[in-house]
TrEMBL record:
PROSITE patterns: ANK_REP_REGION, ANK_REPEAT
MF (Gene Ontology): protein-cysteine S-palmitoyltransferase activity
Organism: Penicillium nordicum
Top class in the EC scheme: transferase
Keywords: ANK repeat, Repeat
PANTHER family per UniProt: ANK_REP_REGION DOMAIN-CONTAINING PROTEIN-RELATED, PALMITOYLTRANSFERASE HIP14
Protein name: protein S-acyltransferase
Pfam family, one: Ank_2
InterPro entries for this protein: Ankyrin_rpt, Ankyrin_rpt-contain_sf
ANK repeat start and end residues: 49-81, 103-135, 136-168
Species classification: Eukaryota, Fungi, Dikarya, Ascomycota, Pezizomycotina
Annotated EC: 2.3.1.225
Length: 309
């Protein structure tokens, strides 16, 4: 007897006894099986696999799959283990030690990282936190900025996403865009930060991230532009930070012209890298002055000559 001749009730019973992978294979055998049992596949995924297909739907921008999972009872309402992202609750504090492997990811993070505006907007309409922070402390805005999705970045800003939400290493969306060289996004966020309604922002800090990453890429034209906007060539953070000059010396593919440019505009050749956050008084510290960073480079002689002049 063909399985196609079985009554739907019996087919449903068979479906409930199968693993998701086996049921999915069965559905692909015939269109009638697909029509009869497809909803069972979604219910099975929700009930026994914690709606894992949500992440596939978010990553690939499938709004129909997302809606089917929601119709099957998938839950998308949970909070980030970081302190309240959008609403400050009484007694809420930053949890300093969070085990990433114990964190539950959220589909909105996957959708933002892939630039799927339709999925992000759908989830926001359902009440998902626009400032949800993932395991690295990155919000949807930070992920969109880092991956270069301008339309999504602008949409999130228009809906009130926080521009100064920091990740686990202290960077915020503008810095994420700058780290990947998405100049249109970093310039847009810089402009928006000048109008930020939730507190005073520091253009020195914003321009620092932009100049730092431009120097690390050896992008001299970009460096000149950022300097023309008022960047301080010697600005750096007190902890876990280095000057644009040190960044160029350590990371620029061909640092000589970039180092020369930075020195010409007043970069301090003796400014060392800020101490690590893990620094303990009394323990030896490996020096990270510009000269030390120049030594391992292929054109070290020319770099050292520039620095000591």
């Amino acid at each position: 007897m063909s399985i196609l001749n079985l009554p739907p009730e019996l087919l449903m019973t068979i479906a409930e006894s199968l693993e998701c992978r086996d049921l999915n294979a069965l559905l692909q055998c015939h269109c009638c099986l697909y029509k009869t049992l497809n909803d069972s596949l979604y219910r099975l995924n929700v009930q026994h696999h914690d709606a894992s297909a949500l992440y596939w739907a978010a990553s690939f921008g499938s709004d129909s799959t997302l809606q089917r999972l929601l119709d099957a009872g998938a839950n998308i309402q949970w909070e980030s283990p970081y302190f309240a992202c959008s609403v400050q609750k009484p007694g809420t504090r930053l949890r300093r030690f969070i085990w990433k492997e114990n964190m539950k990811e959220h589909p909105i993070s996957h959708a933002a990282a892939q630039g799927h505006l339709n999925i992000v907007e759908h989830l926001l309409d359902l009440g998902v936190d626009i400032n949800y922070r993932d395991a690295d402390g990155l919000t949807p805005l930070a992920l969109a900025a880092r991956e270069g999705y301008f339309a999504l970045t602008r949409a999130l800003i228009d809906q009130g996403a926080k521009q100064l939400s920091h990740d686990t290493i202290g960077q915020y969306p503008l810095a994420q865009a700058a780290s990947k060289g998405h100049h249109n996004i970093e310039d847009y966020l810089f402009e928006k930060l000048r109008q930020y309604p939730y507190g005073k922002t520091s253009p020195d800090m914003d321009l620092y991230w932009m100049l730092k990453y431009a120097a690390e890429r050896g992008d001299n034209d970009r460096i000149r532009y950022i300097l023309s906007q008022g960047a301080n060539v010697n600005f750096q953070l007190p902890i876990e930070s280095h000057s644009p000059l040190c960044g160029a010396l350590e990371y620029a593919p061909s640092p000589l012209s970039t180092v020369k440019l930075l020195l010409e505009v007043g970069a301090d050749p003796n400014r060392e890298v800020s101490q690590s956050i893990d620094y303990q008084p009394g323990r030896p510290v490996r020096p990270q002055a510009p000269l030390n960073l120049a030594i391992p480079r292929d054109d070290s002689f020319s770099l050292i000559k520039l620095l000591i002049q």
